[in-house]
Write a structure and sequence with these properties.
Layout lengths: L3 H8 L3 H20 L15 E4 L8 E6 L2 E6 L7 E4 L10 E3 L2 E3 L6 E3 L5 E3 L8 E2 L1 E4 L2 E4 L2
Antiparallel strand pairs: 1-11, 2-3, 3-4, 4-9, 5-6, 6-7, 7-8, 10-11
Length: 144
């Protein structure tokens, strides 16, 4: 038969277990905030969604846009073509910002070619995920 003092001790967590749980929880939150590593998924839009007007994108440059609430980069490699990529850095999930024909990650210095999504400067491990688009009636629209 146990005494009240011993049953109280088993009902309460030890100081060490509370501290360990707190550290583990903080670590999980930190990983979630940083994106937890490389990101390889692009937004999955419905076909025919307008992403941008072609005339709003300079030839050889790119702009920021939203697709279903997700940040994307829309670029214009030639006067009549467009390309679209997730704007989420493949290093740790920060949002990249276009400037001219490049996209810069403000968190860790990765640089991407905004016209094709390829990594120009690491630490990003892989290109920005492409989103299929085409130009229709002056609009950049998704194809899948």
């Amino acid at each position: 038969m146990s005494t009240p003092a011993s049953s109280d001790r088993t009902a309460e967590p030890s100081r060490r277990s509370v501290l360990a749980a707190g550290i583990a929880g903080a670590g999980a939150l930190t990983l979630a905030a940083c994106g937890g590593g490389s990101s390889s998924s692009a937004p999955k839009p419905h076909a025919g969604q307008s992403v941008a007007k072609l005339d709003d994108i300079p030839v050889g440059g790119a702009i920021s846009a939203q697709l279903d609430g997700d940040p994307v980069i829309v670029s214009r490699p030639t006067s009549s073509t467009a390309a679209c990529f997730s704007a989420i850095c493949t290093h740790q999930g920060c949002t990249v910002r276009p400037q001219g024909g490049k996209a810069f990650c403000p968190c860790h210095g990765s640089i991407f070619n905004a016209l094709n999504g390829k990594v120009v400067q690491t630490p990003a491990p892989s290109p920005l995920p492409a989103i299929a688009v085409e130009v229709k009636n002056g609009e950049v629209v998704t194809t899948s």
